[in-house]
């Protein structure tokens, strides 16, 4: 194949399915993958609608999409653990592997990271992708490509729980139960959290959170939420808050609602700066942690799904062929029709 179809973003609100050059033969340590399923993510929609995320600006045409799985069609000469026909999920960030962050295991902080669909790096909404073999994870026969594509957002949930120290018996509050918040919920459950609370502005999302196992759900504008949470946590508040919305009122709430001595992880990305009750962190002696993507999560995520400990299938609510990618983006943007995760499928 010398050319292939791909979803290319040319500028704000200008996403086109068009023919682009296909990747060459894989390098010695790479594999060539025929993409089968790509999940759409808030960041893809943000580039489409705003043309930028913080310092990353779309200046040249770029292929979007980073939550993906597909079939290996060719392997490089050094690759031993994969062969043509294997079904794989892709970890979409390629770090430099040499800097202090890479060699100490925190490769998600690598300054040289080449991450799918982050300008100027092309993403996965394409028929073919060449990728390092060690960042391509073989899927068990029991797992679908859709589940494979969900490993990327599930990775955020797993990594958030690791950063927060979620353990058996902990109580966890999740602020914002969109796709990432819901996957944090599933990861916290698998990690042994016994009480998991959800707060959101949308009732249908709260309903989904309860269906997935949240032990309590509250509307963000409910003035009684503080008291209600204390009433079910020995008068203290939850041990851990995972803030997944990025919305300034929720970020402020994260430190207000957590118990003294508790841990807050900011998973969601919001505005660059806003007014914030800094004194609360000192007085309550909180641990407040940032989070950027994930590291070392794919094997764990595969085990959790393959063993039945986590079921991501209910989160995939809509499917579109590549040619209808703009509809998929629009649905993800509005969240209409009960959308949790929309995926784009590419036929074999
Ligand atoms: Zn994503
Ligand atoms: Zn590095």
Structure description:
- The protein is α/β, with parallel strands linked by helices and 348 residues long.
- It is 28% helix and 27% strand.
- The protein is built from 10 helices and 20 strands.
- Helix 3 packs across helix 4 and helix 3 crosses helix 9.
- The longest helix is centred in the middle third of the chain and has 20 residues.
- The site of one zinc ion has 6 residues, from helix 3.
Short description:
The protein has 348 residues and is of the alpha/beta class.
Using the coordinates above, name the CATH class of the largest domain: Alpha Beta
What is the level-2 CATH architecture name of the largest domain?
Alpha-Beta Complex
Taken as a percent bin, the fraction of beta residues is 25-35%
- The termini sit apart by 14 Å
Number of individual domains: 2
Q: Assign the CATH superfamily of the largest domain.
A: Medium-chain alcohol dehydrogenases, catalytic domain
Shape category: globular
Low-confidence stretches: none
**Annotation, overall tally of beta strands:** 20
The name CATH uses for the topology of the largest domain is Quinone Oxidoreductase, Chain A, domain 1
Count of discrete alpha- or pi-helical segments spanning 4 or more residues: 10
- Average of the residue pLDDT scores: 97
Helix content: 25-40%
Order of helices and strands: EEEHEEEEEEHEEEHEHEHEHEHEHEHEHE
Structural class: alpha/beta
* Major pleated sheet: 7 strands, mixed
What small molecules are bound in this structure?
zinc ion
The radius of gyration computed from the alpha-carbon positions, rounded to a whole number of angstroms, is 20 Å
């Amino acid at each position: 194949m010398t050319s292939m179809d791909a979803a290319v973003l040319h500028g704000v609100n200008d996403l086109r399915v068009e023919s682009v050059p296909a990747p060459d033969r894989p390098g010695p340590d790479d594999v060539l993958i025929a993409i089968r399923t790509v999940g759409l993510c808030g960041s893809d929609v943000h580039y489409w609608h705003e043309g930028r995320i913080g310092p990353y600006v779309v200046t040249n045409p770029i292929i979007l999409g980073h939550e993906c799985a597909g079939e290996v069609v060719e392997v490089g000469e050094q690759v031993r653990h994969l062969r043509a026909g294997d079904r794989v999920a892709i970890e979409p960030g390629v770090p430099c592997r040499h800097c202090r962050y890479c060699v100490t295991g925190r490769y998600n902080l690598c300054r040289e990271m080449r991450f799918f669909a982050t300008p100027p790096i092309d993403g996965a909404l394409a028929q073919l992708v060449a990728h390092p073999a060690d960042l391509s994870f073989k899927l068990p026969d029991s797992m679908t490509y859709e589940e494979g594509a969900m490993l990327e957002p599930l990775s955020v949930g797993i990594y958030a729980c690791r950063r927060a120290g979620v353990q058996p018996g902990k109580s966890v509050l999740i602020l914002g139960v969109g796709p990432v918040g819901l996957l944090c919920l599933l990861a916290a459950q698998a990690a042994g959290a016994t009480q998991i609370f959800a707060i959101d502005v949308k009732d249908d999302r709260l309903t989904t959170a309860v269906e997935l196992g949240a032990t309590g759900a509250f509307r963000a504008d409910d003035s009684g939420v503080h008291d209600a949470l204390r009433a079910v946590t020995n008068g203290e508040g939850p041990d851990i808050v995972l803030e997944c919305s990025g919305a300034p009122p929720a970020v402020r709430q994260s430190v207000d609602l957590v118990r003294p001595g508790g841990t807050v992880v900011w998973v969601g990305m919001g505005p660059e700066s806003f007014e914030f009750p800094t004194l609360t962190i000192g007085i309550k002696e909180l641990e407040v942690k940032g989070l950027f993507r994930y590291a070392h999560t794919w094997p764990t995520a595969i085990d959790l799904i393959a063993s039945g400990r986590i079921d991501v299938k209910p989160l995939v609510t809509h499917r579109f062929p590549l040619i209808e990618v703009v509809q998929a983006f629009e649905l993800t943007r509005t969240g209409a029709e009960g959308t949790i995760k929309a995926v784009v499928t590419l036929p074999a």
